[in-house]
Every structure is written in C-alpha cells, then in structure tokens.
Design a protein that fits this description.
The complex is a heterotrimer. By secondary structure, chain A is mainly α. Helices cover about 70% and strands about 0% of the residues of chain A. Chain C contains 13 helices and 2 strands. Classes of the chains: A mainly alpha, B alpha/beta, C mainly alpha.
Chain lengths: ~280, ~450, ~290
C-alpha cells in the first residue's frame, strides 16, 4: 500500500513489529542459546542470556550418543520422497478439477480433506498389522507412502486453487496450436503454476518433516527420522535442559533454515485460494 | 522387516568375511530397543566391546520410557519383529512370558552364573519358575536425605524411619525463603511415576488395590488415610507444583539442593552423590523407605531387563548380547572406566560381596531395600495379585494411569481426596468389568 | 471446453489420487469398524490370527459410558475453539501491523513465521521445560522477578497452557494467509474511505474485514483439520492429566495404555463421527465462501 506515512509513524510500526516478532521468535532463540550453555548454566537463577561460557559440549554429547546424520538423512528422504510422490499424483488430479470441474468437484475436495480428520492413533493397530503383512515395518518406503497419503489432500487442494487462477484462454490457445494433453500440462500449465507448486512442495516438506506419530511408531533402527531422535532426549536423568536444547536445535535447524531461505516462495503459495 | 531374504543373503556374505576374524558362526546385526536412562546410555557407548568379542553389530533404538513402552508393546502383541532385544520391566516380563511372547532364558552359559542374580530380581522376572528377562539393573526405593540440613534441624535420621518422623523432619527442614523444600516426592500422573509412589505409600498404610475377589478398594479408609497424609505432608513441606514432578524433576531438584529429603529409586543414589552433576554430592545420607507401624515398608521393587521376543530370527546372537550386558564382566568393565559407584546396581549378588563395591556409600542400603521388598505379599492384607508398586495384570497400566491422573488433580488442588477416590473406585471397577474379572 | 473426451480424461487423471485416498480411508476404516465390534485385548493373548470374539455394541456403550468421555469431547472443543479464536484474532492484528511500512519487514516476517517450522514434539518439550517449569522455567523467573508467585502452568492452567503452545505454533500460519489477503486489498478503495474521513474502526469493519472473510474461512478450515487430531503437544506436556484429555488422547489411552483395541476402535469410530459433524458444519459455513 503506497500511502504516505510520516517517519514517526514508520518508527512506531517498526518498533511494534520488531518487538512482537522477537517475542514470537524468542522460544526458538532461547532454545538455541541454551544449547550452548552447560547444564548448570541452563538453569542458572537469574537466567543467563548472552554472558555465559559458550560451549559446544552438548552437541558433541548428543552426536556421540546418536548418529545425527542417519536420522537427518532419513528425515530428508521421507519428507522429500513423500512430497515428490504426492506432487506427481496430485498434479493431474488438481488439473482436472480446476479445468474440467463437475458438480461434484467441491464435494470430492472436501471429502479428501475430511480423510485428514481420522485420528491416527485410532488406526494404529490396523496400520501396524498391515505393515507387518506387507513387510513395510521400519522401511523408508512405507513411511514415504503413509506420509504421502496423509498430506495428499492438502497438496491436491493447494494445487487446485493455483491452477484455478490460470486463465482458461491460454490453455485453449495452446490446444488450438495442437498441443496434446501431456504437452499442455508439461509446457503450458506447469511453468505458469511453478510458484504454486514450489510453495506446495515447501509446505508439505514441513508437514512431513514434523509428523511425529507414524514416523515414531512405524520405525525402529533403519528408517527412524529426527522425530525419533528427539524422543531419546525428552526426559533423561538429571539436568537435561542444555542437551535437550542441543538436540532440539539439531532437529529443527534444517527445516528452519530451508523455511527462511524459501519464505518468499512459501508465503506466495500459502493462500489456499484465500485471495481473490 | 522387508528384505528378509536380502538380509540373510547379505548377512551370509558379511558373516563369511567376519567369522574368520571373530571366530563366530554368523555375524548378525541386532536391533535393540532401550530406554534413555544413564546406565543404558553407558551400555551403548561400550557396545564396541561386545562387537569385538562376538563379531555381532548392534543398532540402538533409544527412546524415552513412555514412547519405548508403547513402541515395544505394539510390536510384541502384533508379532511385528522390529526388535531383536527389548528392554522391558518387571511389570511386563511375567505377563509377556505367560503369553509365550518371550524366549525363555533357561539355557544361559555356565560362566554367566544365573544363580548369582539377586533372588528378588530373578523371581520378579520369571513366570512359572522360568526366567524370561535378564536384569540389567534393579532397584528398590529408599530415603535420600541431606545430612547437613538434618543436623541443622536438630534431628537424626534412624536407619528405618516411619512416616511420622519423615513428616516431622520435612517440616523442620523446610525453608521456603531459601527455596528448600523438606521433602520432594513424585506426584506426576502415570502408573510408573506418581502412581507407583502412592501405591507403595498405600501399602505401608495397609491399603490395597484389590481384595481377593478383584474388587477395587479405593472406598476403604486405608486409602483415604494414605492419600490425606501424603497431601497434607506435601502441602506443608513439598515443592511448588509437585503434581507434575516425576523421577527426573525430583532428581534435578535434589541435585540443585532444593530438597531436604527425597524418597525414590535406589539407583538415584549414584546420581545424587556424583559431584559432576550434584551440588550436594558429599552431603547425602540414606535410610530405608518409611513404614507406618503395620509391618510393611513403602519400598518398591523394579528391574530394567533385557528380553528376546519369541519368533526372533537372531535368538543366539541376542542371547549372547544379553549374557554380555548383564554379566559380571560387564560390571567390571564399567567399574574400570567409570568407577565402582557407577556400575549398574541391584542385579547380582556378587556385586554386593565385592570389597570394592562395599565401599560405595549407598551399596548396603540398596541391598537391604531390595531384600525388604516382597512382591508376593506387597501389603498388609492378602491380595490376589503379584507386584508391589504395580499389579501384574495386563489391565493395570491403563487403570493406574487414569487413577494417578485423578490423584494428581488432588495434588494440584483441583479436587478433594474424597472426590478422587470415588472416581478412582468407579473407573477401576469399570475397567475390571470390561476385562472380565468381575 | 468440457467435451466428452476431456471429461473422461479428467476422470483418468483424478483416479490415482482418489483411489489412493479411498484406499487409505477405507482399509483402516473397515478394520477399525471390524475391531470395534470385537473383544480385542492383545495383552490377554487375543490376536487376529486366533480369531476375535464378537461383542456387538458393547465397546461403543462402554466408551461413551466412561466418565472420561464427555470431558474429553469438551476438552477437544475448548482446545480447538480456543486456538482458533486466538490465532484468528491475533493473526488479523499481526497481519494489519505487518502490512504497514517499516524497516526490516523481511526479517520480521521470518521471525514471525518461524514457530511454524518447529516440530510439535520439540515445541511441547521446550515450552514445558524451559518456560513453564514452575521452578526453573523462564516464566517462573519472570514472575519471581516481579515478586509474584510463579504459576504452575501445566497443572493449574493446563488447558490454557496447551492452547498457548498450540496457538504459538499456528499463529504464523494464520498471520501469513491473512497478510496475503490484506495485501491484495484494493488500496484505492481504502484511500477513498480515508478521504471520506471514515474512522479507522469503521474502515476495518466495513472494508478490510469483509475482504478477509474468505481468508479467515480458509484459516479456520485448515486449522480445524489439524487441531482435531493434535497429540504430540499433549503427550509430552501433561500426558492427558489435569483435564487435557482430548478425544484423540482418550483413544490413545484405550488402545495403547489399556491395550484394549476393541474399545479404542469404538472410540476411533466416534472420533470419525465427530470429525464429520465438524466437517459438515464447516462445509455449511465455508462452502459459500470457497467459490
């Protein structure tokens, strides 16, 4: 909005926004700071903010106890794999919903979303038994499938709202030029929808990365991602704030950094068609 | 797990190359589920010793207690086969053993000396006389107190105190201005946390979970007495927010010097006397858990033990690991690296005969506490169940967690003792009915 | 453009997603329904392989008959409702603020969206231990600094604490969507209103808010879907004690702690019914707005 504001107003807005922003960010900042303290400093009274003996001790303790890279790699594969698979399945579905809508399109969309409301724990035994039957227990492939299915409704919906904003005339023009359906999707539609696809991908990586029920309950040693890594630090004996902070920082850092770098793309796509 | 054939194939190839080196028939990779307690973490660090001796590799799945329990229970009841060794407790072992879900540990090698396992631990980890899990460490509960604060209060802790003394001493030691609470006890909801503590307290007051016909007993005066005593004492001398304090929270409070007394697991003794973590390491004394003059002390019996799920493909290697981890040699290995005070306690008789270990200040009191526990006769009146701080039936964990949630609501001041007991009575009877006991 | 040919092509393209989701819904749902009519106590040796006893509607009656059932519905609705109100109201205010000209807008935006990237388990643990701990928590220090008695958050204000933690996680999401909506507002319209001398409140009420209604709807819809099944935040903080047992948590307790799969499955069916009631309700109010 290009309205004239006085410098005074701008200073006020800046101050307000920064203080609220810092307040919201503070728990994360505090976790990162605590991860560099010793256990005793972590519970010091009064709390220590910046002036303590910075140490990397907690990180080396955590790394010694659990192989961080293995968990990280599993997280990357599971979050990335499920998102990729989901996108591949969702693009055609969203395309057809957006460009050849029928009376039932909206019902199908809402039905898809309602599948997300099943409480996971209610179906733990059925899914576990199924996984044993199919030999998928503790496999990355099994988790990729489950997380893909959990997030598929969101992916379809986000893509649908994007595709709908693409003017139909462009497609018709392409069709006039003799483009096949495949070409239409690959060369006309996808490039136009790229920002939307990018933000869908980002959102789903975040959701899959943070999913903590199935990733914990369907894995053992081979496929366990960072959610399982955290589960071994949540309540050790004695003082543990600093070690918990270090483990937490390690678990959230990759996704946080990815989020920061791609926040423009992410934000652009987070509208779910909310903006008309 | 998925690539079974591949595993065997790859296993064979690797084994071929390794067996020459390790002198072993087949080198396996064992997947072990364990809890994130200090002793287990130490075991993880020493895994190389096992690998060097046998050629078998180990993959650890280390989880927080609640997550671990949910994970291994799901796996064992569905025969998932995700783990080759599971870390389970004294509560699970007899139930699972009875169902035939665990491999019987009746053919351990002579050098392992199974008779050396403390009798209380062995019987608690057996069903029908067969051992189903080998104790990694065992514990009872006892009083840990600050000798300096006790002296300042002008009192002397007897070797076997009663609850009245504890309450009096707690009130005398409490110094709220200096952030010192006379007594820190578990109030956190959960059958293994506050549930365990109030159950053993109840035992010493003559309360019991069930009568001989599996009727819940929360409507009896013994429970009201025990609960009222506990709540009254904690109001006088307990820390703020004790309704959410479990083992870890209290340990941390005690280590920071904020508790006069703490009645909890005997294994905590090595943590509170370790100068690296504890600010009060040289000022801690020990005593038996208190009684109430009725002949039963409020101490429990527990062991974290290693078991092999039935149907495992790697039973031999798994047994080798269990023999290694619960052996006398392992204890010596830890002693050589970390000192005698840090060896896993409470599992073997020979440890308590070892002159080096006898010098450890809490050794004798731990042994006495373990010996004072009798899972067959946990309370004053007869009961139809086995177990001291738990009832060894499959339904107990669920029931006791809900009951302890009602109790925690009392500790937080959200309902009265009578109200909580009424709810506990109703929900316990309801659950027992659902399970077909009544 | 909707020829017969493209219609069938469209169906073909929708098929994989629809079939997969149908399978993902139907297979567990059928199994849950099946178990809910059976006596299935895994720790007593019941297993699918040995055959399970049919018990009719006993599990359904027992699940509702439990003294925990209605409180759990209430807790669920309070948490979902509380988080929705907080995130939408604060989200609107924050979005309005972030829309103003300022220095370092990009960085502020990064700060504000960060909680959305944090795993629920981690945020539960961090809040519980480092902020809400009544002795070593930062909030306790803050209270003591001002001479007040520290609040025992997770026992005395348990529902409020959970709502606070969850709101912290979802506020960024609401703010972003609402911000995008505000930014798309026609500034000429606003300026015209400003010229007319319409007061700030009036401008907000008659121009900005109606414009955001669609975005608000989307926020409510998406968040409800996720909030109905929150679990990790409760599991690591109160473990269902102090009145924070939601329906999801109650089912967890029945299935995993009590090891009564039949009873838990009946609870699962109730949860599905509740979800569908909410879904229908949402569709009614959202449906209009989504076109």
């Amino acid at each position: 909005m290009a309205r004239a504001v006085t410098t005074k107003q701008k200073i006020m807005f800046t101050a307000a926004a920064w203080s609220i922003g810092l307040l919201i960010f503070f728990p994360i900042l505090w976790t990162v700071l605590t991860s560099f303290k010793t256990e005793a400093q972590a519970i010091n009274d009064p709390p220590l903010f910046l002036f303590f003996d910075w140490t990397l001790e907690n990180y080396s303790v955590v790394q010694e106890r659990s192989n961080y890279m293995k968990f990280l790699w599993n997280s990357v594969i599971i979050a990335g794999g499920s998102t990729l698979l989901g996108i591949i399945i969702a693009i055609p579905a969203a395309w057809s919903m957006a460009f050849t809508p029928s009376r039932r399109t909206k019902d199908i969309l809402l039905w898809m979303l309602s599948t997300k409301m099943l409480p996971a724990v209610g179906v733990l035994y059925p899914i576990y038994l199924l996984f044993i039957e199919l030999g998928l227990l503790d496999s990355r492939f099994g988790l990729v499938m489950v997380l893909m299915l959990i997030n598929l409704p969101i992916i379809v919906w986000m893509l649908y709202t994007y595709f709908r904003e693409i003017p139909g005339e462009i497609l018709e023009a392409a069709r006039m030029d003799g483009a096949s359906l495949k070409e239409e999707i690959l060369y006309v539609l996808t490039p136009m929808a790229l920002p939307g696809i990018a933000s869908t991908v980002l959102l789903n990586i975040i959701l899959a990365w943070n999913e903590a029920f199935w990733t914990l309950n369907l894995t053992a040693a081979n496929a366990a991602p960072l959610t399982a890594f955290i589960a071994s630090y949540s309540s050790p004996e004695g003082l543990f704030f600093a070690k918990l902070s270090a483990a937490s920082t390690m678990a959230i850092a990759p996704i946080l950094i990815l989020g920061w770098f791609s926040q423009k793309q992410l934000v652009r796509g987070l509208t779910f068609g909310a903006v008309k | 797990m998925k690539p079974k054939k591949l595993n065997i194939l790859a296993g064979a190839v690797i084994a071929g190359s390794l067996s020459a080196m390790a002198g072993n028939a087949l080198a396996e990779t064992l997947t072990i589920a364990t809890v994130n307690n200090g002793d287990m973490i130490r075991m993880q660090k020493l895994t190389d010793d096992f690998t060097n001796k046998t050629g078998h590799k180990v993959e650890w799945v280390t989880l927080e207690e609640n997550v671990l329990r949910q994970r291994v229970t799901t796996d064992i009841t569905t025969r998932g086969g995700a783990f080759d060794i599971m870390t389970i407790g004294m509560y699970e072992t007899p139930i699972w053993g009875k169902n035939g879900w665990l491999v019987a540990l009746n053919d351990l090698s002579a050098s392992y000396d199974v008779d050396d396992i403390l009798p209380a631990m062995r019987s608690g980890l057996s069903y029908d006389g067969t051992l189903y899990a080998a104790p990694f460490y065992g514990e009872s509960s006892m009083v840990m107190y600050r000798t300096d604060l006790m002296q300042k209060a002008g009192l002397k802790m007897p070797k076997a105190p009663n609850w009245q003394f504890i309450r009096k001493a707690a009130a005398a030691m409490t110094d709220r201005a200096n952030d010192i609470n006379g007594v820190c006890l578990r109030g956190k909801a959960g059958w293994g946390e506050g549930g365990a503590f109030i159950t053993v307290t109840g035992n010493s007051f003559g309360a019991r979970w069930f009568d001989e016909n599996w009727n819940a007993q929360f409507d009896q005066p013994e429970w009201a007495n025990a609960l009222n005593f506990f709540v009254g004492m904690m109001k006088e001398s307990g820390p703020a927010g004790y309704a959410t304090n479990g083992f870890n929270e209290n340990l941390s409070l005690f280590q920071q010097g904020k508790c006069g007394m703490w009645i909890d697991a005997t294994v905590a003794a090595s943590f509170v006397t370790n100068p690296k973590d504890s600010t009060v390491a040289d000022k801690v004394g020990f005593a038996l858990a208190p009684d109430n003059g009725l002949g039963k002390r409020s101490n429990w019996l527990w062991a974290w033990a290693l078991a092999v799920p039935a149907g495992s493909q790697k039973v031999d290697a798994a047994k080798q690991f269990i023999e290694w981890a619960t052996s006398k040699e392992y204890i010596e290995l830890v002693a050589s690296k970390e000192g005698w005070a840090n060896v896993p306690p409470g599992a073997r008789t020979s440890l308590y005969q070892n002159p080096n270990y006898k010098k450890v200040p809490f050794a004798q009191m731990t042994l006495d506490s373990i010996n004072a526990a009798d899972p067959q006769n946990p309370t004053v009146k007869p009961v139809p169940y086995v177990g001291i701080q738990f009832v060894a039936i499959p339904e107990f964990a669920g029931i006791a967690t809900e009951v302890s949630q009602e109790f925690s609501a009392v500790y937080a001041g959200q309902q009265s003792v009578a109200e909580a007991l009424r709810k506990a009575q109703a929900l316990t009877n309801d659950a027992m009915e659902a399970a077909g006991y009544r | 453009m909707a020829t017969q040919h493209s219609r069938s092509a469209a169906r073909m393209m929708m098929a994989p997603a629809v079939i997969l989701l149908l399978g993902w819904m139907l297979v567990p749902l059928t199994m849950t329904l099946f178990f809910s009519f059976k006596k299935y106590l895994p720790l007593r040796g019941d297993s699918v392989a040995n055959g399970l006893d049919w018990v009719g509607f006993e599990n359904y009656v027992r699940f509702v008959g439990s003294s925990s059932f209605w409180p759990s519905i209430q807790a669920t609705l309070v948490i979902v409702g509380g988080v929705l109100v907080i995130t939408v109201v604060l989200g609107i205010l924050l979005a309005l603020l972030l829309d103003r000209p300022m220095w370092g807008q990009g960085i502020v935006r990064i700060l504000v969206i960060s909680p959305f990237f944090v795993m629920p388990t981690v945020s539960g643990l961090v809040w519980k231990n480092m902020f809400m701990d009544p002795i070593n928590g930062l909030l306790a220090h803050l209270y003591k600094f001002f001479g007040a008695e520290p609040v025992q958050w997770l026992s005395q204000a348990s529902l409020e604490s959970i709502i606070m933690i969850v709101s912290w996680q979802w506020l960024p999401f609401a703010t972003l969507i609402l911000l995008t909506a505000i930014q798309s507002l026609d500034s000429e319209q606003l300026e015209a209103a400003e010229m007319d001398g319409a007061p700030v409140i009036k401008r907000f009420w008659h121009i900005i808010l109606p414009h955001m209604s669609r975005a608000i709807t989307v926020v409510i819809l998406i968040q409800t879907i996720f909030l109905l099944s929150i679990f990790a935040e409760i599991f690591v903080t109160t473990a269902g004690a102090f009145g924070t047992k939601t329906l999801t948590y109650l089912i967890f307790q029945r299935v995993l702690e009590s090891q009564n799969v039949g009873l838990g499955s009946a609870g699962g069916v109730y949860a599905i019914i509740l979800a569908n009631i909410v879904a229908i309700f949402l569709m009614r109010i959202v449906g209009k707005n989504l076109d």
